[in-house]
């Protein structure tokens, strides 16, 4: 059985290398799991709403916060999008899972040959902003550790996002494309697992299924009112959040 599985995996890898000349692409299903400190989450909720939100959040964190994504890639361009089918957390009204789904309702487009990405942020009735920027340079360091993920032997690599956020990735050398989930890319093989900690949340994205399909990757250029870089968008969101807090009197509690 092990020999058969090894042969099938080798055949899939070889067929993809050959099929790149035929317009075929890889379709990878990922599951994103988030673990958060409930006390840290509650600190960001205005005190007048905390009692109502706390039991709902505790139940969601207890059940686990997950969303499913799909990466379509041919090694040159790719589309990373959330699956429309609701998962368990969303179907039971998970607040955090729904917020994540809302934030990712628009696909992430990567132009790997240009080392660029595009992401539309749509505020219905307010603004449509297109983030157009370079993919992060993680300054990857490849280690000797290995792990089997989705049937593939992967190697571990570590890097940093914005020189401060530690990122851990596991890539498959037998799938020779430098792509991966979300904005995580740049290794000599498809990234099948990535984990990092950001804004008090532990995020892990793991591949669970890989398929080769006879289908080209078509990118529909998103239309927006404004185009800006990631840092510009973050600064604008920071100012907007502070403005909303002052307007609604929901600043950070002093207790």
UniProtKB/TrEMBL annotation:
One matching Pfam family: Porph_ging
Superkingdom as given in the UniProt entry: Bacteria
InterPro entries tied to this protein: GLPGLI
Protein's recorded name: GLPGLI family protein
Source organism of this protein record: Candidatus Ornithobacterium hominis
